[in-house]
């Protein structure tokens, strides 16, 4: 394991009531509240974890999904390393709104290269018996809209919650690795025979 812990900011977005706060609380405190209140503005919690030998401090930002709190949540998007787009599998409207959430995030976080940004899609409330969105439909949206990883979770039953946050970390680490390769790939080779040509005026 490499010594120093990496601080990663992950943000949960999605309609009011899909279970963002419940996912964060399940992951960080292992508790579930069936009478949870709507979030006002934003809240965050940290959790340390190890993924593929890397020590990471995950700073999870939980935002208010209700439209009336838009101005309270958007200032906190900047600096996010990963965005968890969340819907509820028993609520078609929340699935339909994923595109708007992504758009809002890209705008307020001022993401320079949206097609490269690590989004992860979560279909929560997997424990519900009556679904409105099938796994296949959600997967299709993810592959058509940028090839995002898709995970189904239940904050209530603690299904795949750890897996969801670990996937977020993996996506960020993979992106970092990719960027490092790109930077090194673009390094100017001072000994290259092309050098005279490219520097010549
Ligand atoms: N059955 C079931 N209920 C859940 C699950 N996750 C959350 N809930 C319930 O759904 C309701 C809304 O959950 P929240 O976590 O408050 O939703 P939210 O996305 O944070 O909502 P906002 O804060 O308004 O944006 C609460 O009553 C939760 O108990 C789940 O996995 N399964
Ligand atoms: Mg909430």
UniProtKB/TrEMBL annotation:
Top-level EC class, please? hydrolase
A Gene Ontology biological process noted in the UniProt record is: protein transport
Cofactor(s) needed by this chain: Mg(2+)
**What is the recorded membrane topology of this protein?**
Lipid-anchor
**Compartment(s) where it occurs, according to its Swiss-Prot or TrEMBL record:** Cell membrane; Cytoplasmic vesicle, Phagosome membrane
The record's comment on protein family reads: Belongs to the small GTPase superfamily. Rab family.
Q: Which GO terms describe its cellular component?
A: cytosol; late endosome; lysosome; phagocytic vesicle membrane; plasma membrane
Q: Write one Gene Ontology MF term.
A: GTP binding
Known EC number? 3.6.5.2
Reactions that this protein is recorded to catalyse: GTP + H2O = GDP + phosphate + H(+)
The entry's protein name is small monomeric GTPase
Q: Which UniProt keywords apply?
A: Cell membrane, Cytoplasmic vesicle, GTP-binding, Hydrolase, Lipoprotein, Membrane, Nucleotide-binding, Phosphoprotein, Prenylation, Protein transport, Transport
A Pfam family annotated for this UniProt entry: Ras
């Amino acid at each position: 394991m490499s010594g120093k812990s990496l601080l990663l900011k992950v943000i949960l977005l999605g309609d009011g009531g899909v279970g963002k706060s419940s996912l964060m609380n399940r992951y960080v405190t292992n508790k579930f509240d069936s009478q949870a209140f709507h979030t006002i503005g934003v809240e965050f919690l940290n959790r340390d974890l190890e993924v593929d030998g890397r020590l990471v401090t995950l700073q999870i930002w939980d935002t208010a999904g209700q439209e009336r709190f838009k101005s309270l949540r958007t200032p906190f998007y900047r600096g996010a390393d990963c965005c968890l787009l969340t819907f509820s599998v028993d609520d078609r409207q929340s699935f339909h709104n994923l595109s708007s959430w992504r758009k809002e995030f890209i705008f307020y976080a001022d993401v320079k290269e949206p097609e490269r940004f690590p989004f992860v899609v979560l279909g929560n409330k997997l424990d519900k018996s009556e679904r409105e969105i099938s796994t296949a439909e959600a997967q299709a949206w993810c592959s058509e809209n940028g090839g995002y990883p898709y995970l189904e979770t239940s904050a209530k039953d603690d299904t795949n919650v750890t897996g969801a946050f670990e996937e977020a970390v993996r996506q960020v680490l993979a992106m970092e690795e990719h960027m490092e390769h790109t930077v090194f790939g673009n390094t100017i080779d001072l000994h290259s025979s092309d050098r005279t040509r490219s520097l010549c005026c």
